[in-house]
Design a protein that fits this description.
Elements (H helix, E strand, L loop, with lengths): L11 E4 L14 H13 L4 E3 L4 E7 L5 E7 L6 H12 L6 E7 L7 E4 L8 H10 L6 E5 L9 H8 L5 H24 L1 H8 L14
Parallel strand pairs: 1-4, 1-5, 5-7
Antiparallel strand pairs: 2-3, 3-4, 6-7
Amino acid sequence: MTDASALISPQLVVGLGNPGAKYDQTRHNIGFEAIDALSQAWQIPLTENRKFQGYFGEGTAVKGQKVRLLKPTTYMNLSGQSIRAVIDWYKLPPESVLVIYDDMDLPVGKLRLRQSGSAGGHNGMKSTIAHLNSQNFPRLRIGIGSPKQKSGNGEVVSHVLGRFSVAERQALAEVLKLVVDAVEMSMKQGIPKAMSLYNNRTIELTNASEAS
């Protein structure tokens, strides 16, 4: 491993989403659900933190490692403000921030972990990169599928702000377990090891209308 950032374990895990009941459990908020899954797995309660502009928790994860969890409440396109407030307070390097968010280019049932990269058109990631002044931080994308027709911006907006089907929701319960496993592996053995184990995994959707 030549990249020094590969050796840095995630110390802040951030899930991107929009605050409020209106956006709860929409496709765009799967990052929030991932943080909730980690909060439950590690028994780290999240409480509103005005200084950090988000729901925040601190505790221990695997191998007794200290970790912080964050769900920004700034709305998606200002997510970086909240993340910046936390890393400034704890003096964390950008490479130690793992950001979890939705990706339309991946089907439901797929994860993609990367060590760095561009925003790929995602407003939450654009804000994060701008506020961290770096693209060199790991990110975990969760597939939300693409709209049947990508004819215009309206189609995309209604898709990401829509909710999952019953079959997709069943698959996502398994996906969120994989998210926890992948994050724990990245903390135990590094991002590259977690990438090799989880980027090729697929949770198949079962047809919810079929009687099994």
